[in-house]
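[agent] plan:
  1. take the single chain provided in the ticket
  2. run structure prediction with default settings
  3. attach structure tokens to the ticket
  4. add a short note for the reviewer (M.T.)
[agent] executing step 1
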Amino acid sequence: MKNYESVLAFGDSHVAGCELSDKYSLKDYISKRITIEEADAPGKELAFPKIIADTLNIPCYNYAMSGGSNSRSLRLLTRVVQEQPNSLVLFGYTSTDRSEMFYPEDSLGKDADSFLQLGLQWEGVFDNTINDFYIKHLYPYNNLKELMVCVHTICSNFTNRYLHLPLFPETLPNIDNMFTFEGHNNYLTWCQERKFKNLPFYHYGQDAHDALADLILKEI
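[agent] step 2 finished; step 3 output follows
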């Protein structure tokens, strides 16, 4: 096992540990009492990247966000790996129907950098005319091959090790460092097959995060 200075994690709510903690609810965020980053923070302390980092006795920096897109993860990766090189990168790929746009106006669905996360993940959760327009005119394109090449190129130059973690069941390219989830190809299918606890908003419980942390530790 290589020496890592930290664990860097990217992705959506599954990587952020959404629903693992009961400190905040979705209503707290929708009512704008807290930011989405604040809502995610308690779950990140319980999610698989933190379990891995604690086992390795190194810091964990989890940049995942509930509702986040692959575009957001890639944008953050390009900056973070230069600030925190020699790390273990866990790059979780969410659904390719998501995107983002810079939007400095007040709106739900934004991250702390004022990028509005767009996609079906918000449909029925709260009203947003921009997101409604995006969904109505959405033509999803599976860009995982191009995206994974970008992640590979960036991580190969700055990090000690990285893993591609497909979270959703989509067609995947043949590329190095692809995590296979015990032959199930993606996190959600693996969780379903392993019958981990299914939480109210379609996430999986602490048992899934513990098991995934154990698998990744064996992989690295």
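[agent] step 4 note for reviewer: The domain at 9-219 is CATH 3.40.50.1110 (Rossmann fold).
[agent] ticket updated
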